[in-house]
Design brief:
Two copies of one chain form a homodimer. Chain A contains eight helices and no strands. By secondary structure, chain A is mainly alpha-helical. At the A-B interface, α7 and α8 of A face α7 and α8 of B.
DNA sequence: CTCTTAATCTTATCACTGTCAAGTTCAAAT
DNA sequence: ATTTGAACTTGACAGTGATAAGATTAAGAG
């Protein structure tokens, strides 16, 4: 029993999930629509019923993990009460996410597919920073600059954390915290 | 006269140059060894006499522009006398390079091809920072953290500057300077 | 100058890729 | 029960990285 039915039933979602798992294991370069189709037990043209083309698939896959990422950050925001620490904690979560999913960093930012001004994690970070700096009495013109500086640092550090061997890994959280605290905002 | 000679004479160099020009114009994704061969007026298999494979070509192309980039930074180091300003100026040059060559940012850092601990611009920056912080009386343990923080910021900001529409472009140097100065080292 | 050699390049071919047109199946609405 | 449209398969196409086998020629040895 359970001969494969002609209609998969949940193909789009499975393509995204298996695709991301594949990227996580072998990297983006290795991913092909045909292999992906095979992994899902489906013919090589089947994915094109759900995605316009490979680029579209990659784009939607990026959205998919960006949503997860954004949720992680949002969760972090709700957990941390201390408004003075929230920027640091958010930064830490940001960096840690890419430490835990190194291949996602390349996947997300390699191909210039992301429009920063529509990138939820950035918008979220920018919002929190705006609020925090505002409360700290930072003047309006300076806020944007500080925010960009901080975001650049956090995002740049994420790139570092995605490479093995740069950060000290025995107490990673402390390491990240130390680096982010090494400059005064 | 000037029938194409069987032997090109300078193919390897031309492949690198035309290849980089192509990347700059159309992006890495569009580049294929065959198109590249055609651009150089040579058969599709000819490049493989000079490069093991596409990956090898990309790697050597990266080295090629990394050299130029490193030279720019070195030049900057020699020009700026004021040791207090050197880190800022170096950061500015770093960011500006990728503003001027946006496609290079993706080209260099997309595919995880670069080993940071062997990446000359990083080593150069790390060296200058070490010296600067040392002179500023920063204690040894803190130096590394400050350096990583600063480098992350500079490198992350480079990513920003490679996207159009994020940085204000009417007086870019001042903009970059403002951001890098928005945090205290 | 001739011969040899090894680097450079061409031709032909392979397996693989993204993608599409045409046909097949089947769930659900009419 | 019939229709319809979405989800799939099959089979094809051009383009890709790569290799083997052979052609060309620059440069050195005799």
């Amino acid at each position: 029993m359970s001969e494969k039915p002609y209609h998969h039933g949940n193909l789009k979602m499975e393509l995204l999930e298996k695709g991301l798992a594949f990227v996580d294991e072998h990297g983006v370069e290795e991913l092909s629509m045909r292999k992906l189709a095979e992994v899902c037990g489906v013919s090589s043209a089947a994915p094109y019923a759900h995605f316009q083309n490979k680029e579209d698939f990659l784009l939607q896959a990026q959205r998919f993990i960006t949503e997860q990422f954004t949720e992680t950050l949002q969760e972090c925001m709700e957990t941390v009460k201390d408004k003075k620490k929230i920027l640091l904690e958010l930064g830490k979560r940001y960096v840690l996410f890419f430490y835990e999913n190194p291949s996602y960093y390349h996947f997300l930012f390699s191909h210039g597919r992301i429009e920063l001004t529509e990138y939820p994690p950035y918008l979220l970070f920018a919002g929190v920073a705006e609020e925090a700096f505002s409360e700290m009495g930072v003047k309006k013109k300076a806020r944007r600059k500080k925010m960009l500086a901080l975001w650049s640092m956090v995002h740049g550090l994420s790139g570092l954390s995605a490479m093995k061997g740069v950060l000290e890994e025995d107490d990673l959280e402390k390491e990240i915290e130390g680096i982010l605290n090494a400059v005064e905002i």
